[in-house]
Fold these 2 entries.
Entry 1:
Amino acid sequence: MKKLFLIPWMLLTTLAVTTACGEPHPSSNEPEQTRPEDDGNDEEGGNVNGADGRYLVLYCSRTGNTERMARTIQSTLDCEMAEVEPAVPYDTDYNAMLDRAQTELEAIAQGDFPAITTSVESFDNYDIIFVGYPIWFGHMASPMQAFLHDHAALLAGKRIALFASSGSSGIGTSERDAAALVPEALFEESLLLTSGSLGSMATRIPAWLEELGAGREEH
Ligand SMILES: Cc1cc2nc3c(=O)[nH]c(=O)nc-3n(C[C@H](O)[C@H](O)[C@H](O)COP(=O)(O)O)c2cc1C
């Protein structure tokens, strides 16, 4: 993986990100206290058997930032949501976590994807699938890359809206990751929130959903 890329990001975010990622719950961008299993919409780390609403929110998140974005989308649309989880949980030690993430991304570049515990049987009835992840070394976090790889055939022809959180990096490289993993999907306008803009989530996300034409589901 590109160590050169890592250096500017590390310099920019040494204080903020080290604190955030060194702890399960960062102090600066405190995740919600509720966990995915607390609501009826989430099927964490298991099978989603398919499509009883128009939208599905899928996310992976280690320190809670992307999860907060996912929950805001889910509650705005009142739709289904599921967490994409690695088969082996990430180490809470920050440096061990960085090493593993880097190793996984290098393996993905060679076509070797890490195991995950989440699968979806069918996307047929969903209008839009929201796919959220943190940016890792400029790329889509490895569990979500594995999910897209595993479900590429089922996602062909589907509308996908990517959303991501990062310390400061852009979303462009991860958009290219997604396009390579699911070349036959139809990608909508993506949404990135950085550590500087996560605070405006409550306005940015509804505005983005409106641009996509996504509205609250009727149940
Ligand atoms: C392994 C790893 C690599 C990261 N690489 C980057 C990066 O390249 N650029 C960046 O801006 N932030 C990077 N970050 C910071 C995360 O993208 C950021 O904190 C994100 O909001 C975390 O989302 P989460 O709370 O959902 O896990 C990295 C974090 C980790 C753990």
Entry 2:
Amino acid sequence: MGNLKLTNVTKAFGALTVLHGIDLTIDDGKFVVFVGPSGCGKSTLLRIIAGLEDISAGGIEIGGRDVVQLSPAERKIAMVFQSYALYPHMSVRKNLAFGLENLKFKRGEIDTRIAEAARMLAIEPYLERKPRQLSGGQRQRVAIGRAIVRNPDIFLFDEPLSNLDAALRVQTRAEITRLHRQLKTTMIYVTHDQVEAMTMADEIVVLNGGRIEQVGTPLELFDNPRNLFVAGFLGSPRMNMLKGKVMAVGEAGVTIDVGYGAPLAASIDPAAAKPGQAVLVGIRPAHFAVGDEGLPFVVQYHESLGTETYVYGTLEGRDEQIIVHQTGHFAPRSGDLLRIMPLSGRVHVFDPDNGLALPQTVSQRSDAYEHA
Ligand SMILES: Nc1ncnc2c1ncn2[C@@H]1O[C@H](COP(=O)(O)OP(=O)(O)OP(=O)(O)O)[C@@H](O)[C@H]1O
Ligand SMILES: [Mg+2]
């Protein structure tokens, strides 16, 4: 069974501690994505789970079994790397067979597993070729095939698509998702790509500086980031931040003064805020309505992507850049003054001292608003 439990997993390289007590449980069959800035410890954590790296302290259980002393093969884990790591002098078939031969599998069993994996990944036509005779996408499929034939309890992927071009990434992403649905095996997947994280994951784990910032479904993290880090990390372009002050605290929520005589309503637990308190207000670029009222926004420039437009500018008289998203074509001129109004229920509020989100009275939900 492929459920995984990490308890207080700590890793130091000499004097440098890179993982600070990771606690994480992953249920059997889940697709979990690790994201976080470069150097935050994603690959190290993956290698520790695989058994390619020792831990300095803590525990690792797979299917209720302590695996800390076990080799990667004994853990029943298979890992797919960014650099496909195929043996260049071996045919595809031999690359797939090699690990099983080392584990003394019978010839018939090896052939059956290779045939099954090759069919699943549509690499049958290439079985007799050498890796150099394959495209990058085909090579990565072989690398995934090599993991599949091992029939592992857990698959680990470390940025497997980052060497592929955009079209191939989309295609291979869909193939991995399909594979997960078919095999129903636990998969842990590291990526820098927001779209991969949002679309592939049952759960996303956000890491930062060797610590977990938040774990949740993609929409939970997007709609209810628990702190400034997660709010800024997920979502592209990033969430806008405005300085403000709590004006009034009432039953239904609080009102916040961000200037310009246009108080914002936020569904914040009244017990968590007090009048006069300094806050940071977070609003995603897509959560402004452009219209006749709201905050005065001075346009600097815009980027048209065809189906959507990003408008860059500042609030009148201020320096912080604000990004406003509009669907379709929209071409304001530099210097134009627009009025932008945060959509109701889409206002995030943070305590600037500790970076934590103030608790919301009603959980923000992605279906709580109509996308303009
Ligand atoms: N073998 C090692 N010896 C010393 N330090 C290491 C070693 N491996 C990794 N580190 C350090 O551990 C930290 C985490 O590295 P890791 O490769 O896990 O980051 P990452 O999140 O995968 O980054 P990226 O997104 O760039 O792949 C980094 O500071 C890195 O320099
Ligand atoms: Mg890495």
